[in-house]
Predict the 3D structure of the following.
Amino acid sequence: MVGAGRWDSYAKFYNLVLKTVASQRQQLFQRLALAEPLEVYIAGCGSGLDLPYLPAQSAVLGVDFSAEMLRQSAQLQQQLQAAGHPLALTLQQGRAELSGLADNSVDLVLLHLILAVTDQPQALLQEAVRVLKPGGVISIWDKFAPQQISGLRRAADYFSRKLGTTLLLRIDDLLQPHRLVIMQRHSMLCGQMQHLIMTTHPTTHNKERG
């Protein structure tokens, strides 16, 4: 939708804007109830706002196409390290649907505020399924459209896309091609935001091995 340079400029006020949904982020990690160190993939890691909620000693890959966002993530990691909350963080500039991770290699994939931003949401979700270990968890948190989309929403989407995000993405349409089991589903902001906690269907990995 918009290039890396635009997101570099957004990075200057990104954290300030996302303070408006900070309580939602805290709630979703309470639902995830993470305890032990994990292998984690954060697709579209942004400025690293998910990092403080991950268990210490976790091995984390964060991918983002904004160099400035990645710089802020690295800075936050250093602050966490100094505070006694170390993470083995690897940061990679590029497209989130091309993580380079091995199949079945991570315990947790975070797709937070990224599916409505990327121009390839289906490819990104497929990447999440590919890299997830059997029994692992995918956490999706984003704004999604209802099944019936109003003309007003379609008009607003024209301007929203200019800023780098869509208002028309329907999560159920996105999930349909994938064998995912929804373990929890929560609506926020009168249904404008949703949080889904999912895992892959057992036959997904069996099929891949076959």
Q: What stands out?
A: The beta strands are 39-43, 59-64, 88-93, 106-112, 132-143, 180-188, 193-200. Residues 4-209 form a domain with the Rossmann fold fold (CATH 3.40.50.150).
